[in-house]
Amino acid sequence: MTVLFRCRVEKPLLAKADSVTKSLGTSTAEMFRVFVAEIARTGKVPVGLKISDGDALMDVPHRNKIWSQLDDAQSW
Questions:
Q1: Model confidence pLDDT, tens digit, residues 64-73
Q2: Which domain holds residue 15?
């Protein structure tokens, strides 16, 4: 049995990922399935994440603002 998993991704980021995965002969969706399977198999995230000071990933209020703008749960 499969489950539909939805998430929001900024368009430019998805477009870049789609371009990369297409050049590898696969799709972004398939690479996500591989990523999730590897986390489940190993119990670890299969990439090294390095976050430096000033990185946008560290700006939690900015990140939360973006996600809240994308939240359409109230329209359901």
A1: 777 777 666 6
A2: 11-75
